[in-house]
Amino acid sequence: DAGVIQSPRHEVTEMGQEVTLRCKPISGHNSLFWYRQTMMRGLELLIYFNNNVPIDDSGMPEDRFSAKMPNASFSTLKIQPSEPRDSAVYFCASSAKTGRAEAFFGQGTRLTVV
Amino acid sequence: GENVEQHPSTLSVQEGDSAVIKCTYSDSASNYFPWYKQELGKRPQLIIDIRSNVGEKKDQRIAVTLNKTAKHFSLHITETQPEDSAVYFCAASGDSNYQLIWGAGTKLIIKP
Q: Largest CB tally within 10 Å, which of A110, B39, B73, B110?
């Protein structure tokens, strides 16, 4: 397996634009997590899905953020409209059993909003 | 809900010495405690984990200890090497809270 695959690796966009981050989890994993990492706030859980269903989105900062998981092999995190304070590294991770097994992280998407 | 605190935020040790990073958790129902290592510019990766039915686990130069009564767990790295320099995160989860709750991270610096 190629591991968790995220795209794009880097994204530079202008304030106000829509940004879509993509994630393909490891085949067979039933849990998927979206994290945001910044120097100031560390690693923050934004949302996690179990069996494609959003379980906890309390970490989503505001309505500008939305996430979907239409099937077991694909998830998106969308920011609309984007703001400079959204600049961060966004990680997607998947695991075979929510919270009780190793979470495998993708390589991350470095988002810069100018 | 669960809260995980991690100390210190930065740890600098001489190469060859040992390093210890400590975490405390608040939810007594938590029963899974992983440690992740994140090298600069890379993704976090699991290095060792422990479940609540054991008190200690070792893998070569790294070990984790768990004190359920005191609700704390620690990462021990012996004979530190330059490649151990990274940020280390602890986390906790349990049957009542399936998501991993993360510590804030410890930046470990190995001085040559």
A: B73
